Amino acid sequence: MDLRIAGKTALVTGAATGIGRATVELLAAEGVRVLGIDIQHEVMQRYIDDLGLTDVSAVHQDLSSAEGCAGAVDSTLAAFGGAPDILVNNAGAGKMLALTQIDDGMFQRTLDLNLMAMVRISRALVPLMAEGAGGSVVSVASDLARQAEPVIVDYAVSKAGVMTVSKALALEYAPKVRVNTVCPGPIWTPFWSAPGGFAGEIEKTYGVTGDAAVQAFIEDRGIPMGRMGLPEEVANAIVFLASPVSGFTTGSFMSIDGGTIRATF
Q1: Measured between alpha carbons, how far is 265 from 249 in angstroms, rounded to an integer?
Q2: Cα gap 173→264, rounded to integer Å
Q3: What is the DSSP secondary structure assignment for residue 182, as one 8-state letter?
């Protein structure tokens, strides 16, 4: 299928690893010129060089601050000579903690990165996209935005906020700019596998290690597909929503969660 995005420009936040990296690679394969923003600049630059992604550039910014978001916007406008055709708000982080373990500072830091980065960058770029040729925004939320759990509450709240802001932007800027969200379930990324990631937490929870801990989580969570998702499976949905092929879709969310959320609406 021709997604009709060759020659377009895209900004991807949280682009160094996981879903962000998979999205960058897929956009580049479709002929899109990509600017990736991440605090892990060297990690991103390494895979750009290793894969020979000549139309991808990496910029270092800490998107948990207003200054970092402003720097990301400035870099985008300078790189593309204006607003991008595609904006992917992917930057985010979280820890598997109960509400009683999350103090005010931790809660605020989660909101700053997961929600406010999306708000600040969208607030700056979406009006410019609408003034120009238009475009598409895809923000990464979570299945946890739709179904509360006793842990990672700050993360879930931030992602629910991403969905709400996306709906508001979709209404305000249609038909020039389409705004959608994707809601991944458990996806095997460094979010899980890196030292200090979720995998280590579930090992403590279930009292087993490695693949056995992951399988225990899958069974406990009741994931119908019986496995963790892959970053590229989320990237496929992001790039589809970013493309004109999904031209009648805005203000929506797409679940890529292996069936974890079984609500009828």
Answers
A1: 16
A2: 28
A3: E
- The rounded distance, in Å, linking the Cα atoms of 97 and 207 is 17
State residue 68's pLDDT score: 98
Going by the DSSP 8-state scheme, the letter that residue 151 receives in this structure is B
The position carrying tokens 């998107």 is: 63
In 18-101, DSSP assigns E strands to 33-38, 56-60, 86-89
104-111 vs 153-173: helix crossing angle, rounded to 10: 30
| pLDDT for 87 beyond 80 | yes
Whether pTM > 0.85 for this model: the answer is yes
Q: Which amino acid is at 66?
A: A
As given in the structure block, the two tokens for residue 184 are 């991944």
Give the CA-trace dihedral at 117, 263, 136, 23, to 10 degrees: 70
List phi, psi (to 5°) of 264. -90, 5
Confidence of residue 199 (pLDDT cuts 50, 70, 90): confident
